[in-house]
Amino acid sequence: FAMAAYLDGVEAFSSPENPWARLINMFRFIPDEATFGEVLMRLTPHYASQGIDLFSKIGDDMAGQSGACMGPRNPSLAQQVPCFWLEGSDVNSKSDFGAGRASPDSKWNSWNVGAITNVNSEWSVGGSLGTSEFANEISTPSELLSQYSGDYYQVSFFGNYQKDSMFSNFAFSAGGGDFS
C-alpha cells in the first residue's frame, strides 16, 4: 500500500496528459501481483546493476588471489618475503530468484600476477595486475532478457604493517573494462 500511496502522490503532481501519469494509471489496473512484479522488473535498470555487480565480483576474486602473501605474518618469517604469485580462476556464478523470475548467469576466468616484498622489519608492500574475460546472461525460464560479454582489467597496490602482535593491511585497486 505504501507504493500505491507514493504513486498517488506522484500522480497528483502530474497532468493527465503527462506520460508519467498515464504510466501510473496503467499500473493501477494490473490484474495481479505477479504481473505487477514483472512490469516493475522490466522498468527497473537492474540489468546495469547486474553488470556493476559482476565487475565487483571479478575485482574481489582478483584481489583475493594474493591470499598467501597478505595477512599477519610471523616476524621470524619476515625474511621469506618477497612473495610472488601467478594465479587463475574459472568461476560460474548462477543466481536463482525463484520460479519465473529473471536470474543472472555469470561466467569469468581471471589471471593475476603479483608480488610483495619487505620495505623494513615492519612494512611490506606489493602490487598486482589482473585480467579477466566474462560473459553474463539474464533470463527467465522462457525468455532471454540480456546478454553481454567483455574484458576486465585491474591493478592493485597493497601493504602490510606489523609491529609485535598488532597488524594492519591496506589495499588500493582500480579496474575497468569494456563489454558488448
Structural notes for this entry:
With 180 residues, the chain is α+β, with helices and mostly antiparallel strands. It has helices at residues 2-12, 19-28, 33-43, 46-64; strands at 83-94, 103-118, 123-139, 144-163, 166-179. The chain contains 4 helices and 5 strands, in the order ααααβββββ. Helix 1 (2-12) packs antiparallel against helix 2. The chain is elongated. Residues 73-79 have low confidence and may be disordered.
Features:
180 residues; five-stranded antiparallel sheet; 5 strands; 4 helices
SSE blueprint:
Blueprint lengths: L1 H11 L6 H10 L4 H11 L2 H19 L18 E12 L8 E16 L4 E17 L4 E20 L2 E14 L1
Antiparallel strand pairs: 1-2, 2-3, 3-4, 4-5
Helix pairs in contact: 1-2
Based on helices, strands and strand pairing, what is the structural class?
alpha+beta
Helix-residue proportion = 25-40%
Give the termini distance in whole angstroms.
39 Å
Q: Whole-number radius of gyration? A: 24 Å
Shape: elongated
What is the H/E string?
HHHHEEEEE
Largest pleated sheet: 5 strands, antiparallel
Low-confidence stretches: 73-79
Overall average residue pLDDT: 76
**Counting H and I runs of at least 4 residues, what is the number of helices?**
4
**Count of beta strands:** 5
DSSP strand content = 35-45%
Query: Going across the major beta sheet, what is the strand order?
Result: 1-2-3-4-5
Quick recap:
By secondary structure, the protein is an alpha+beta fold. The chain contains 4 helices and 5 strands. Strands 1-2-3-4-5 form a 5-stranded antiparallel sheet, with helices on one face.
